[in-house]
């Protein structure tokens, strides 16, 4: 019996008729670029998240760039973020010739530790980018209070967390700008690259719509330096087909996570979701001391696992010019040494979960 990490094939078979119909509708109209499905999807994303504006774009990385360009980040600006995240979070800061200032994480949620942010603020700080890692928002009350106190913008990197909530609001509706990714294996994924930005600020929304299309304000007239950042109509069509089932899928992911948590025992630290938050369980990530051995034994039993992330960003070669060094962010480093993500998708049944948890406990 083979266990699949994200199980996109089973999901496609389940929604095949809706997805195929939507794709064929685009093929029949040949409206591949900025077809009406884009507008439809943006309206549905806005209603799903509660954010006034949802603007689709080419991927979750460009979503971050759109946000940074919208708030007018300049060379030399500093932006506070977490070192325990995917490269895009800090890569995009550096692409803007700004400087990522890392702040260590909380041991229990893996998210940026809001208590450490104030000490990292200088007169060059312009923004904070919390990441809702593995699907759970960071401590947004504290982060927003600090941002208000120091007049900083908050961009939430919600690439892994579309649909998650903090105090009942989605994390797409909490930042000055929030972003997400529709990469295929994300909780809501399309069949290629895709992403979106969200905001309640009309001015940022207008600006990001222009920047997404080369900064164009009318045909062949360019107000801003922009990018080729559109979402393909076919990807929008796929997301339109999948979105009606998304709440149910999130319920199933919650079922799987609960089942893991109720069953797993032994020398493992399990993920914690804080009481005022929900996670969309992009990953179910445990901490294990003997990770290499555990990973191999599970692999031998046909159980795939993943390591997000083996090296924290401050120790990546590409950020060496910033002179970060080992022990700068001990909790991020410790997490990198022991995290292991288990298979997570809406289609794991009790027997799959039994096999996975038994194999893990046995090791
Ligand atoms: C935290 C985080 N930020 C940004 C991204 C970038 O998204 P994309 O791959 O769609 O560019 C990802 C994707 O894995 C991510 O996990």
Characterise the protein shown here:
With 363 residues, the chain is of the alpha/beta class. The protein is built from 11 helices and 15 strands. It has helices at 8-29, 36-49, 60-70, 88-95, 140-150, 202-212, 233-242, 246-263, 291-300, 330-338, 350-362, and strands at 53-57, 78-81, 99-102, 125-129, 153-157, 165-166, 169-170, 177-181, 195-199, 216-218, 221-222, 268-269, 277-278, 284-288, 339-342. The strands form 4 sheets. A 7-stranded mixed beta sheet has the order 1-9-8-5-4-2-3, sandwiched between helices. Helix 1 crosses helix 7 and helix 2 (36-49) crosses helix 7. The relative contact order is 0.17. The mean pLDDT is 97. The structure holds pyridoxal-5'-phosphate (PLP). Pyridoxal-5'-phosphate is lined by residues 59-61, 85-86, 88-89, 131, 157, 159-160, 181, 183, 193, 195.
